[in-house]
Design a protein that fits this description.
mainly beta; six-stranded mixed β-sheet
């Protein structure tokens, strides 16, 4: 019996050894098929790239223009093991889709000075190259977008300038900022409008336009145009998420994330001491069925410290005054019917001190979050609730 146990143990050890050898051989024999951009660095300025946001097929790079020139900037790409990188020149449709690009291209080693004032497209091809069974090339095209950071970053938001993003039906506001003495648009806003596109296309078909979305411009303004946010009732399409708040915020949407609260990435680099939030607003709340009370709007501006763990705020912490990285905040929660615009001036409440050197070097973000319904992250509110905001300004020290 003892001999049988020893023999069995030897067989198990031998089998495990063979599995390890086979696994090792497979790992060494098959080239990597990953096609990711893992990181980006600037040549000649270690801190010139203030922030990098890597998503499914795009990278947003925030550039300190006192240290790097965006029209002649050399970036080094860290891609998947064994993968190669080349610049591509897609046509207009391919720029929108950002995939299946078979356009003219030219080889380029990373680290070559390039004009990044407009989006640049690169293709990452996996080490294995071609799938022998399908003939498909393992590759992905990435869109590299840059955003200039200067000492004259806008702190007043008029909501006068709007545009239709490529391939979309809704409109988004943009602001203006001087870069190298030339006034250029800065696109710092995001919204939840895109998530409702399939529903509005189903309802309105060829007649769909920007007025159907819950974040839109309006001529009902203090001056020029204003921001109009409307809570949408989509209960007939998704009873689990019956109300989608009209929402506009500074930052980015991460549409690949399956957690809705993590899709909203609030905040952009900032280097000033905010003192007062000033804006004009009016509110037309509906009655929330579950409470019998007026819906409540939400306007919040947060200065927060960034670090390796916190690069932006999300639905889990944007409203949390006690969140450890929060430095200062100002907020307004309208809940009464207002037919005329009112001026609000709200002082910032500081919860901790600011490191001036870190502030100067863009180690802090400003997060602006505006919603027609306070319960937006929980999909609660009242359909038709409307919030208007105009001439918003962060008055700084």
């Amino acid at each position: 019996m003892k001999r049988k146990i020893i023999v069995f143990a030897q067989m198990v050890i031998t089998a495990l050894f063979m599995v390890e050898v086979m696994t090792s051989c497979v790992g060494e024999g098959l080239a990597n098929i990953e096609v990711d951009i893992l990181d980006i660095h600037a040549v000649g300025s270690a801190d010139g790239l203030v922030k990098k946001t890597i998503q499914e097929n795009s990278v947003i790079v925030y550039v300190d223009t006192t240290k790097l020139k965006m029209d002649n900037m050399a970036l080094e790409y860290n891609v998947s093991e064994g993968a190669t990188l080349e610049y591509v020149v897609p046509n207009e449709k391919q720029q929108k889709d950002c995939d299946d690009i078979n356009a003219d291209h030219y080889d380029a080693l990373d680290g070559i000075a390039t004009d990044y004032t407009s989006p640049v497209y690169v293709r990452v091809t996996a080490a294995r190259g071609i799938d022998p069974e399908t003939g498909k090339i393992w590759s992905k095209v990435w869109k590299i977008k840059t955003q200039a950071l200067t000492d004259n970053m806008p702190t007043k938001y008029t909501f006068d300038n709007w545009e239709t993003p490529q391939g979309c039906y809704y409109q988004m506001p943009y602001d203006l900022m001087k870069v190298d003495n030339v006034e250029k648009p800065i696109r710092m806003w995001e919204s939840t409008s895109g998530s409702l596109t399939p529903i509005w296309m189903y309802l309105y078909g060829a007649d769909i336009n920007y007025t159907h979305f819950n974040s839109q411009p309006t001529d009902d303004a203090v001056s020029g145009k204003a921001l109009k946010l409307v809570t949408a009732d989509i209960s007939m399409f998704d009873p689990r998420k019956p109300f989608v708040s009209g929402c506009l915020f500074t930052g980015e949407m991460d549409n690949e994330n399956t957690d809705d609260k993590l899709k909203t990435r609030v905040g952009l680099p900032f280097n000033k001491h905010p003192q007062t939030l000033k804006l004009y607003y009016k509110y037309q709340p509906g009655v929330v069925a579950s409470t019998g009370k007026n819906d409540e709007g939400y306007i919040r501006v947060v200065l927060y410290r960034t670090d390796n763990e916190v690069q932006y705020l999300t639905g889990y912490n944007i409203m949390d005054n006690s969140f450890g990285n929060t430095v200062a905040y100002a907020e307004l929660k309208p809940n009464e019917m207002m037919s005329e615009y009112a001026l609000a001036e709200i002082p910032f409440t500081y919860t901790q001190d600011v490191n001036d050197d870190d502030l100067k070097n863009w180690k802090y973000n400003i997060g602006i979050y505006i919603a027609s319904s306070l319960g937006g992250f929980e999909y609660s509110g009242c359909g038709g609730t409307t919030l208007y905001v105009d001439e918003m300004e962060i008055i700084c020290e």
